[in-house]
TrEMBL record:
Protein name in the entry: Acyl-CoA dehydrogenase
Domain FAD-dependent urate hydroxylase HpyO/Asp monooxygenase CreE-like FAD/NAD(P)-binding: 3-123
UniProt source species: Buttiauxella noackiae ATCC 51607
Signal peptide interval: none
Top-level taxon of the source organism: Bacteria
Transmembrane segments: none
Length: 495
């Protein structure tokens, strides 16, 4: 979905570069180099400037994946596999039965039968019908095709999706012009002078620019898988604090100066998040963005890694396995604390997106509003009102761009499967090492479940292409090795 030309514009950049994208047949950079000058030029990309750390339009990445997919189908057929591809075919239901997994598709009178079905339905956004001319419940609910006038536009959110939403609006009112020295300014169309965009969030913090670091990641020394497994097996009581203690050791070892500056040894899993954001909260978001852009660009030129940024980046994946084992209170502490730090760090955005933001600010179009913990949102027919204390902000068009929310079994759009899973008693689908569903017995091992929003409860950082590749590989192994379907959520067998 993020890479299709139906739902995205050429302006929207991937925040993953060739160096990180797990190749299928060719690497992304290899594929890019095999494209013609003219073809790349359509995306504003120059052949002679291609490199492995470059962030490019998401639609171009989508073209690569489509090409690789078609090649995959050809090769599978050559090897004797029977492959059928049904594009634009809406699956309406699934059910595991004694005869096999039944799969119903729109326009098909009877269900097809499979030994194994894989659900990889991706992001779930509100339907286009839920949008009006003045309110979009997500940037992916009809905004790309909608005509947005030069009016007051409010965007709930200040990170990736919010920036996509802002781009979708501004390209209707002008264009970004790039100078030789990577400077960008925004040329506003005549007649669009009234366009104003306000990005808003509780903290009013903008994402930082993607930073240089060694890839593949260097291993951690203290927060190893063994150390994490050991803490999980020691029980939920105090788990978050114990793992935070390990994190502190790891960070101190990686970056003693930063640890001292932050007084890391005085912090806990809650105050660490406050300390992480403290400086940014006190500064103007655009000034901060400008300074941060300068810093990361200089580091990229010098191939300099900032140790504390890099260690936090590697820690998010190492720490994630504890999430399903946290008790309710610690899970909440994790969600409002460490998870935000990790997401802020790994969801850094391309420098180009920061330059565009700064250009929009320079043009007097965009601003950021800090809402704080208490605000009210009132969606009216003509306008949306946001109230913060005594202040009421009114917007002619409003876009809710807060990103994907975790979903539960009750949200599944497949009624028969939903009923089967609900009879198993779990409110989130429970999957094994190979991502096949574990319960109830009737579905066990017969449906592989890789639909991201439903996995997010236990794996909050599951989004991203490298994780997609890992999930795909785990499912494929499961099919070919028919390994015993061990429980993904329990590294230690308790009986
Ligand atoms: C706006 C946006 C930008 C992103 N940018 C990046 C990025 O730059 N780098 C990165 O690593 N990750 C990015 N991500 C994260 C993203 O989750 C993954 O990169 C990846 O797209 C997830 O793949 P997927 O196959 O699980 O889901 P999707 O890519 O969403 O694909 C799901 C597919 O299932 C189809 N489908 C859904 N329901 C049905 C049904 N009932 N019947 C038939 N078909 C169905 C959909 O039409 C869609 O084609 C981004 C996410 C978003 C939302």
């Amino acid at each position: 979905m993020p890479y299709s030309d139906e739902e995205n514009s050429r302006m929207m950049l991937a925040n993953i570069a060739s160096i990180e994208i797990p190749p299928i047949f060719s690497t992304y950079i290899g594929w890019l180099r095999s494209q013609s000058e003219d073809h790349l030029a359509r995306y504003g990309v120059r052949h002679d400037s291609l490199h492995i750390r470059q962030f490019l339009p998401r639609i171009l990445l989508g073209e690569y994946f489509r090409d690789q997919f078609l090649e995959l189908v050809v090769q599978a057929k050559e090897q004797g596999f029977d492959v059928e591809v049904h594009e634009s075919c809406q699956v309406t239901d699934l059910e595991a039965t004694n005869e096999g997994v039944k799969l119903w598709a729109e326009g098909e009178p009877s269900p097809a039968l499979f030994d194994l079905a894989v659900i990889a339905t991706g992001h779930v956004w509100p339907d286009e019908e839920k949008s009006t001319r003045t309110f979009f419940p997500s940037p992916w609910s009809g905004l790309m095709e909608a005509k947005i006038g030069a009016c007051k536009v409010g965007i709930m959110g200040t990170s990736l999706s919010a920036l996509d939403a802002a781009m979708a609006v501004v390209i209707q009112h002008g264009e970004f012009v790039e100078s030789e020295r990577e400077q960008i300014h925004f040329d506003l169309d005549e007649g669009s002078e009234k366009l104003r965009i306000v990005l808003m969030s509780r903290t009013g913090i903008l994402p930082e620019a993607d930073f240089y670091c060694p890839i593949p990641y260097e291993p951690l020394t203290i927060v190893t898988q063994e150390a994490i497994d050991h803490e999980i097996s020691a029980g939920a009581d105090g788990l978050l604090n114990r793992v935070f203690g390990l994190m502190v050791e790891e960070i101190e070892c990686a970056d003693p100066a930063w640890s001292k500056h932050l007084a890391l040894n005085t912090l806990d899993a809650d105050s660490f998040a406050r300390a992480w954001f403290a400086d940014r909260k006190m500064n103007d978001p655009f000034h901060w963005a400008e300074a941060n852009l300068y810093e990361v660009e200089r580091n990229k030129r010098d191939k300099r890694t900032v140790p504390w940024r890099y260690v936090i980046l590697r820690l998010h994946e190492a720490v994630q396995p504890i999430v399903p084992y946290l008790d309710e209170q610690d899970r909440e502490r994790f969600n409002v604390g460490l998870a935000r730090v990790f997401i802020d760090n790994y969801a850094a955005i391309p420098s180009q997106s920061i330059r565009r933001l700064l250009a929009l600010r320079e043009a007097g179009i965009i601003s950021v509003l800090t809402l704080g913990p208490d605000y009210k949102m009132d969606v009216k027919e003509q306008q949306t009102e946001i109230s913060v204390g005594q202040n009421v902000y009114k917007f002619d068009v409003f876009i809710d761009a807060r990103g994907q929310k975790p979903l539960k079994t009750k949200d599944l759009p497949f009624p028969a499967l939903r009923k089967q899973l609900e009879s198993g008693g779990d409110d989130i689908p429970d999957v094994g090492e190979d991502y096949t569903l574990l319960q109830p017995e009737s579905v066990r091992g017969r449906i592989a479940f890789g639909a991201i929003p439903y996995l997010m409860h236990d794996q909050p950082f599951v989004q991203g292409l490298t994780v997609c590749a890992e999930i795909g590989e785990a499912m494929a192994k499961g099919i070919f090795e028919s390994a015993p379907n061990t429980r993904r959520r329990l590294p230690f067998s308790d009986g």
